[in-house]
């Protein structure tokens, strides 16, 4: 009788483990599907655009069940007429996040990895007053800039 009960528990346990593995595989496949990606990426891009004035483009997005998001061919650009423009282009961008934090409705990013990053900054400098003559002594000019930065 004990042997039959032991085999029954073993079959139930094995069935639960196999079911868990099948669910993980199905969930992983679902997270990588283009349908899911097309529903995740546009809202994120909209928040970046509306809240931070950042235009972004992503070639490929993948989400890992172990708490990693990978972006391929990622580009982000920001422009402010008064300050200038910034462009970030990355061949690959990986973010690691805490799954436990997501359950608490908090996004906690533990690491960011970039492959082949290219950053371009074009800043607009404030205009100088043309009527002021700079001092003839260069050290006096440096001292003036330190004491009264633009």
What is the gist of this entry?
The protein is α+β, with helices and mostly antiparallel strands. Helices cover 43% and strands 34% of the residues.
Task: Note down, in words, how this protein is organized.
The chain is α+β, with helices and mostly antiparallel strands and 150 residues long. It has four helices and five strands; from the N terminus they run H-H-E-E-E-H-E-E-H. Strands 1, 2, 3, 4 and 5 form a five-stranded antiparallel beta sheet that branches. A hairpin with a 3-residue loop joins strand 1 and strand 2. The protein starts with a helix and ends with a helix. The mean pLDDT is 80.
Compile the SSE list and pairings.
Blueprint lengths: L1 H30 L2 H19 L1 E11 L3 E13 L3 E14 L1 H5 L5 E7 L2 E6 L14 H10 L3
Antiparallel strand pairs: 1-2, 2-3, 3-4, 3-5
Task: Estimate the mean pLDDT confidence.
Answer: 80
Strand content: 25-35%
Major sheet details: 5 strands, antiparallel
How many distinct helices?
Answer: 4
User: What level of helicity do the residues show?
Assistant: 40-55%
Along the chain, the helix and strand elements come as HHEEEHEEH
The N- and C-terminal alpha carbons lie at a distance of 89 Å
State the secondary-structure class.
alpha+beta
Shape: elongated
Essential attributes:
34% strand, alpha+beta, 150 residues, single chain, five-stranded antiparallel beta sheet
